[in-house]
Each structure stands twice: as structure tokens, then as C-alpha cells.
Amino acid sequence: MNKTKKKIIIAAVSLFNENGMNNIRNQDIAAAAEISLSNFNYHFKTKQDLVYAVFTYMKEVLEEQVYGNKVLIKEGQGLEITKAYFEFERDFRFFYLDTHNILQTYPELKAGFRKQIKEAILIIKNLNYIAVGKGLMIPEPLPGLYDQLAEQIWVNNHFWFAQIQIRGEETATVKKGLETCYAILYPYLTEKGKRSYQKYLENLES
pLDDT digit string (tens) for 14-34? Predict the structure, then answer.
């Protein structure tokens, strides 16, 4: 990706985050990127072209910062993975605030997003089972319970920033998001797991 395209995409994401995707015109993005509208149109003929480029960029960032971090996943560093996901969600919050409408407007994105959901839930399941093996979580009390737990954690994480904004609160920090995960996991954590989670939160900046 050339520098100008990336500059446009980053400017677009910033404006989308602040004002919503449907409220931003191409000329707004061009101005924010400090380029002419004709230069913008040279790189992206339509807003749809830009939107697809933004989501390609999002996928690349997600793979690099979260799902592509094979070392953290293999070592069962669930808290670091969750933290990275919350940071990603914060940086691209426009999508999480308007997921349904965006997918309705750009249906070509649905298949990729649904695949990403399955991958995310599978990673959460694997991290939970690694945590059991490391003595941080209790063995699964009922067959299939940890599958449901993984889905519950995904729902909490995916809608964390969105629900905070809908409720009109101004405290949607990454740390508070991790604290909600702790609340969900708490009944399934061993004493060792509780100490580990609490220590992680204590050392985390707000």
C-alpha cells in the first residue's frame, strides 16, 4: 500500500470513529488527509472502494496485533490477547458501533466478518482450555459449558465499547473491558487464576 492510500485510510478511520461512517463525505476525508479531492478520487473512485480498503486494513491490523500473535496464543496469554483485541476495537470503534448497518450496506463484508467471529471464538476456547491445563481455570464443570463461555466472552468483548457509548458513559477503557471479562470468568477461575488475573489488572494502566 502506498503512503497516500494509507494516509487516506487512517484519516477515514479517525473521522468514522468520531462521526460515524455514513456521515462522512469523501471531501471530508480528503481535507483530513491534507490532499485534494481529485487526489482522493485518483486513489479511490468511490466511497465503496474506500470502505473495502479500510476493512482490508482492519483485517491486516487484527491479524498482526491479535490473531497473528501465535506466540501469545500458544503460551496461553489470554489476558494479553484480550487486551490487544480491546485496543483494536477502540481504534476501529466505528465498526462496532454500527456493525449491522455496515454489513447491510456492504454485504460483501459479511462472509469475512462471520469467518472472523468463528476464529475469535475458537481462540477463546483454546485459551480457556490452556488455562485449565496451567491450573488457572477449573476443569469444565459440564460438557459444552466452556463453548458457551467462549461465546459469552466474545459477545462481551465485541460490544464493549458500543454498549458504553449507547449508555452515555465516558469510561470505556481497555482496563474496564478486561474487568468485565474477569467478572465473567471469575466462577471458573482457580485461586491461582484469580491471583494471576488480579495482579495483571493491578499492573495495567487505566
Answer: 999 999 998 899 999 999 999
